[in-house]
Amino acid sequence: MAEQNDNLNVELDPEQMVQQGVHFGHSPSKLHPEMERYLYGIRNTINIIDLEQTAEKLKQALSFIKQLKEEDRTLLVVGTKIQVQDLTEEFAKQGGFPYVNERWIGGTFTNFDNISERIEYLKELEQKREEGEFEKYTKKEKADKEEEIEKLQRKFGGLKSLNGLPDAVLVLHMRKDDLAVREAQKKGVKIIGIADTNVDPTQADYPIPANDDAITSVQYILDKIEEVV
């Protein structure tokens, strides 16, 4: 039976989760001991995640995200695995969230002042281009400036709305973006993370036990976040 949280007004249906592959984990040989509590069993040599627990943990994460939005606090979305890069950007832009979908730059949290300077430099270059200042350059100089903007955009474009450290970070693949997780821990930034069976869920303040490799599984979770925000 589908679960409904009155405060959230969102339906979490285990049958729908099964259809989206949310329950599929990795092989038992890759199991992180801390994920054992979230398992339903093993099927065809694959760990199966207990979707009742997924629903419970997802509700907790959704409540926290809703609270962040209501209090106008900042959630940074991180998804740099190739399969979810476009998904990350689309979701973040639609919800008005800052995001990282290319590569996590070391020091994004732990050396934010330096990162902030690069973001401001990108904004300055874009403003100069808009105001026509590039027209005074030679064709080659203009091309060089455009290339510089493109490179900075790839690295920092999703962070342009970030004026300081975010209040929380949503990590779509905790193994791939473990550096983001570690930096968030160091700086006291709350972590919401999709926890597949091969990662340590205790690294996240709000772990969501779920398949982090299937796009359909990640999409299901993002859709539920969209519903509450």
CATH superfamily descriptor of the largest domain = Glucose-6-phosphate isomerase like protein, domain 1
The dominant shape is elongated
SSE order, one letter for each helix or strand: EEHEEHEHEHHEHEEH
What is the mean predicted local confidence, pLDDT? Answer: 95
Second rung of CATH, namely the architecture of the largest domain: 3-Layer(aba) Sandwich
Strand proportion, as a percent range, falls in 15-25%
Which helices and strands appear, and what pairs or packs with what?
Elements lengths: L2 E3 L4 E3 L1 H6 L19 E5 L2 E4 L1 H20 L4 E4 L6 H11 L3 E2 L11 H19 L8 H18 L11 E4 L6 H10 L2 E6 L10 E4 L5 H14 L1
Helix pairs in contact: 2-7, 4-5
Keywords: Coiled coil, Ribonucleoprotein, Ribosomal protein
Organism: candidate division MSBL1 archaeon SCGC-AAA382N08
Family: Belongs to the universal ribosomal protein uS2 family.
Descriptive notes:
The protein folds into two domains: 51-106 and 165-228, Glucose-6-phosphate isomerase like protein, domain 1 (Rossmann fold, 3-Layer(aba) Sandwich); 112-159, Helix Hairpins. Helix content is 43%, strand content 15%. The chain has helices spanning 14-19, 51-70, 85-95, 112-130, 139-156, 178-187, 215-228, and strands spanning 3-5, 10-12, 39-43, 46-49, 75-78, 99-100, 168-171, 190-195, 206-209. Strands 6-5-7-8-9 form a five-stranded parallel β-sheet, sandwiched between helices. Strands 1-2 form a two-stranded antiparallel ribbon. Helix 2 (51-70) packs across helix 7 and helix 4 crosses helix 5 (139-156).
